[in-house]
Design a protein that fits this description.
Helix content of chain A: 10-25%
Strand content of chain B: 15-25%
Protein name (chain B): F-box domain-containing protein
Keywords (chain B): Auxin signaling pathway, Developmental protein, Nucleus, Ubl conjugation pathway
Distance between the termini of chain B: 55 Å
Oligomer: heterodimer
Largest sheet of chain B: 22 strands, mixed
CATH class of one domain in chain A: Alpha Beta
Pathway (chain B): Protein modification; protein ubiquitination
Shape of chain B: globular
Radius of gyration of chain B: 25 Å
CATH topology of one domain in chain B: Monooxygenase
Strand content of chain A: 15-25%
CATH topology of one domain in chain A: Ubiquitin-like (UB roll)
Number of helices of chain A: 4
Largest sheet of chain A: 6 strands, mixed
Structural class of chain A: alpha/beta
Number of helices of chain B: 20
Radius of gyration of chain A: 27 Å
CATH class of one domain in chain B: Mainly Alpha
CATH architecture of one domain in chain B: Up-down Bundle
CATH architecture of one domain in chain A: Roll
GO cellular component, one term (chain B): nucleus
GO molecular function (chain B): auxin binding
Number of strands of chain A: 6
Order of helices and strands of chain A: HHEEHEEEHE
Helix content of chain B: 25-40%
Chain lengths: 158, 585
């Protein structure tokens, strides 16, 4: 068994002297020892500490929720008459205006909420009681709490 | 004179040999034993899908009924292996479908499984019974539907922590009305909602169902209706446990849970609300396994729950349990064999989560049968490790993750060398070890000297020099899997101990100081090792002294693999060829 006191081909001094020891922060070669030492680095690091992706995501949403941030809120969106729906992350929108803009763009038509208009598509939503309601009546934050899915209806229906 | 046992006698004797390790030894004795063994092996295990060709395996074991395969390196679980690396199940499924149509069980871990694979399985194996996919990816719910609809004798369908292209919950409706053979169903990793009526009907006609793991979309208000139809369950993974229930619903659910007289294992419990903990009181006394990884419950509520679980053998929980909660576990859960404590990340928010090394010390004192630990903690001490080792010399698996890289003993500021020395000295049966914190080469000298039964070792941010690797490769006799990240050594130890690598399944090194030249030398020296370099940002020129990002070295009789993506280079045996990316699209 190697006695680490005697000469050893592996002692640090014989190792390439351009290699930094862990305490040095600057790195000479294209290799970088990126160890997540500060809290903020650990927070954004995808591979440390070693926990599996699903648990990592769950914990991330948990902590965001505890801090009061909205986490991802995916809901299904259907356009009446079109069998295949889309999925939308509502937490990325700041309010009704940006939601409508995005939907209009996504479905390539003009989508509005509120007033019944024979010309435009009207946006409705299913709330957590299962009822279908007009989008736009309640404050945006409250809407995010209760919305389950969205439907873009044909104008005459409303 | 022919002194050999007749084939029939040998065959009968070998039918009592279950362990594949023993069977591997048996097959090395002589040619007739090799032949007899291979004709009688029913359960085939291949720890690295690239170590041998599917065709060879199919030909060697004509009576194969069960196949277990592992693909990607373990560190793929933590995002250290880029997407597209490999681990494709298709060549195996194709080979078995053509040659071993009587195959009944397929278990895959960390492999890429496509819908095509699943459809092939459904179409080719008429007696197919068991599909268990762990940490796999590449398929959609359409593939699952194919299995459900076609495999008439399906008993087990388990998707454990897979990444699935979730096209909706319709797959569940593909189980035919005549299907009554299900024993275990695990779809906890899927996101979409399944139709309640489909699930209810499936449960009603599956009297043999012992294990059911729902996904998060199954809300609490429907749980009662499901449990009523499956009171014989031994393992239950609930869906979300946070929806609002009215008092009548609560009463009904409490009753349904208390009717599960065989229930031994409980998991799921997403977002478990403290007010619902009393619902679980009736099952606690019988539980042997409890997974609270997704239950973000605080310490007082955890104590409330765990103090009733006197038969508990396996506990997975978040660090919200704190030292105080672990003290309760030490007092109440005397049968505990396995403990995993995961980081909730509360320490990053500077909230007070008081989980320290003391928690693990308490459990090691109180739970005399404890043999397997995974513990995440911000910092640790040598004294704690020494106590733990003294208390529990029966550890078989000890994984400590000190989350602060290079963190020394916070009381003495010393490296954690002495602590881990105690662990490997006292725990003579240690099979698996993960080390962390500030560690010098000395720690690895101790591991090399003492950890004679160690098979798997994981290291991150440790050591001083090549000596560290040399100690391990020259010392640990039973070492099969070594994975290292961010450690400051490289070439010398690797080349000096090249022969050792052929006795191991694999070696992974990332963010270490291994040079390209050393990789070439190693590959040329060792004909039966695949030396693969993973470089997502390859340099324009590659002089021998340039470092490589990651290397994965494994023994194989199948030669270099032909399915490498553009960021993986297999180093060739002959110096003239050098390095190439052999790939067949």
């Amino acid at each position: 068994m190697e006695n680490s006191n005697s000469y050893s081909p592996y002692s640090s001094s014989s190792v390439d002297s351009t290699k930094p020891s862990p305490s040095e922060s600057s790195v000479n070669l294209s290799l970088s020892l990126t160890f997540p030492s500060t809290s903020s680095q650990r927070e954004t690091s995808q591979d440390w500490p070693p926990i599996k992706p699903r648990l990592r995501d769950t914990l991330k949403s948990l902590r965001l929720r505890q801090r009061g941030y909205n986490t991802a809120l995916f809901v299904k969106v259907y356009m009446e008459g079109v069998p295949i729906g889309r999925k939308l992350d509502l937490s990325t929108f700041s309010g009704y205006k940006s939601l409508l803009e995005n939907l209009s763009h996504m479905f390539d038509t003009s989508v509005i909420c509120g007033t019944r208009d024979r010309k435009h598509h009207v946006l409705t939503y299913q709330d957590k009681d299962g009822d279908w309601m007009m989008v736009g009546d309640i404050p945006w934050d409250m809407f995010l709490e209760t919305v389950r899915r969205l439907k873009i209806t044909r104008p005459e229906r409303c | 004179m022919d002194r050999r046992f007749p084939f029939k006698v040998l065959e009968h004797i070998f039918s009592f040999v279950d362990s594949n390790e023993d069977r591997n030894s048996v097959s090395l004795v002589c040619k007739s034993w090799f032949e007899t063994e291979r004709r009688t092996r029913k359960r085939v295990f291949v720890g690295n899908c690239y170590a041998v060709s599917p065709l060879k395996v199919a030909r060697r074991f004509p009576k194969m009924r069960s196949l277990t395969l592992k693909g990607k390196p373990h560190f793929a679980d933590y995002n250290l292996v880029p997407d597209g690396w490999g681990g494709y199940a298709w060549p195996w499924i194709e080979a078995m479908a053509a040659r071993r149509p009587l195959l009944e069980e397929i278990r895959l871990k960390r492999m890429v499984v496509t819908d095509e694979c699943l459809e092939k399985i459904a179409a080719s194996f008429r007696d197919f019974k068991t599909l268990v996919l762990t940490s796999c990816e590449g398929f959609s719910t359409d593939g699952i539907a194919a299995i459900a609809s076609t495999c008439r004798k399906l008993r087990d369908l388990e998707l454990r922590e897979c990444i699935v292209d979730d096209l909706g919950g319709d797959w569940l409706s593909y189980f035919p009305e005549t299907s009554t053979s299900l024993v275990s169903l695990d779809f906890s990793c899927l996101d979409s909602e399944v139709k309640l009526s489909d699930l209810e009907r499936l449960l009603s006609r599956s009297p043999n169902l012992k294990s059911l793991k729902l996904n998060r979309s199954v809300t609490l208000d429907v749980l009662e209706s499901l449990l009523r139809r499956a009171p014989q369950l031994v393992e239950l993974g609930t869906g979300s446990f946070s929806d609002e229930l009215d008092p009548e619903e609560i009463a009904k659910l409490t009753k349904a849970l208390s009717e599960l007289k065989q229930l031994k294992s409980l998991s799921g419990l997403w977002d478990l609300l403290p007010e619902y903990i009393p619902l679980l009181y009736s099952v606690c006394p019988r539980l042997t396994s409890l997974n609270l990884s997704y239950a973000t419950v605080q310490m007082p509520d955890l104590i409330d729950l765990l103090s009733r679980c006197s038969k508990l053998q396996k506990l997975w929980v978040m660090d919200l349990i704190e030292d105080k909660g672990l003290k309760t576990v030490a007092l109440c859960c005397k049968e505990l064999r396995e403990l995993r404590v995961f980081p909730s990340g509360a320490d990053l928010d500077e909230t007070d989560v008081t989980l320290t090394e003391q928690g693990l010390v308490s459990v090691s004192e109180g739970c005399k049968k404890l043999e397997s630990v995974l513990y995440f903690c911000v910092q640790f001490t040598n004294a704690a490790l020494v106590s733990i080792a003294k208390n529990r010399p029966n550890f078989r698996c000890f994984r400590l993750c000190v989350m602060e890289p290079f963190a020394p003993d916070y009381r003495t500021q010393q490296p954690l060398d002495e602590g881990f020395k105690a662990i490997v000295e006292k725990c003579k049966d240690l099979r698996r070890l993960s080390v962390s914190g500030l560690l010098t080469d000395k720690a690895f000298e101790y591991i090399g000297v003492h950890a004679k039964k160690l098979r798997m070792l994981s290291i991150a941010f440790a050591g001083d020099s090549d000596l560290m690797l040399h100690h391990l490769l020259s010392g640990c006799q039973s070492l099969k899997k070594l994975e290292i990240r961010d450690c400051p050594f490289g070439d010398t130890a690797l080349l000096e101990n090249a022969a050792k690598l052929e006795t191991m399944r694999s070696l992974w090194m990332s963010s270490c100081f291994v040079s390209f030249g050393a990789c070439k030398q190693l590959s040329q020296k060792m004909p039966r090792l695949n030396v693969e370099v993973i470089d997502e940002h390859p340099p324009k020129t590659r002089p021998d002294s340039s470092p490589v990002e990651r290397i994965y070295i494994y023994r194989t009789v199948a030669g270099p693999r032909l399915d490498t993506p553009e960021f993986v280079w297999t180093i060739h045996k002959s110096p003239e060829v050098g390095v190439s990316r052999l790939s067949i699209r």
